[in-house]
Please model this.
Amino acid sequence: MKEEKKLIEAALFMSARPMALEEFRTLTGIGALGFLQSTIEELKKEYVDRAIEISENDGRYEMRIRPEYVEKVKQYAQETELSKSALRTLAYISKHDGMLKSDLVKRIGSQVYIDVKELVEAGFVKTPRAGRTTKLVLTDKFRKYFVIQNVPVVPDNSQTTLNQESESSTQEPAPSEQPQIKGEEGEHEME
Model:
């Protein structure tokens, strides 16, 4: 198999979204889009009798499970894939576990509403009511998915007043207390 075909195959396998020919041009360094398209067509033929296929839609290519196998294997899919925006919001919430959503909106912006909805649906954050707003609390799923060090668990104390919560959510941890998240790619300090 030619090296460029291997690179395209690897990129299709790794990508969580459909890829355009221009991306393959950048990846391989080959400027001829026709050549790249014929290379992808060759690769598609290699997957004809397999459970995985390479499909094209509006000039974008992706590697996926053939529809007839999806129902049988979907329980083995990776549990969660988050948008970059939601991941950034989750990182901020992990530093300020228990903060009010209204405070987060003031600091980050209204995009938070979309991100929090995605994080709740993914099971990383729960949002108990706190007066007229909600509190953003990390879940056990978050703690299991990411290996967390130096992040205290915020107790769900419904007796706490909004002013106390608002004041506590604005405090920054000392540099030595910065949360460490260890994912599949290693340890990263939260900013």
About this structure: Confidence is low (pLDDT under 50) at residues 155-180, 182-191. The first strand starts at residue 19 and ends at 20. DSSP finds nine helices and ten strands in the chain.
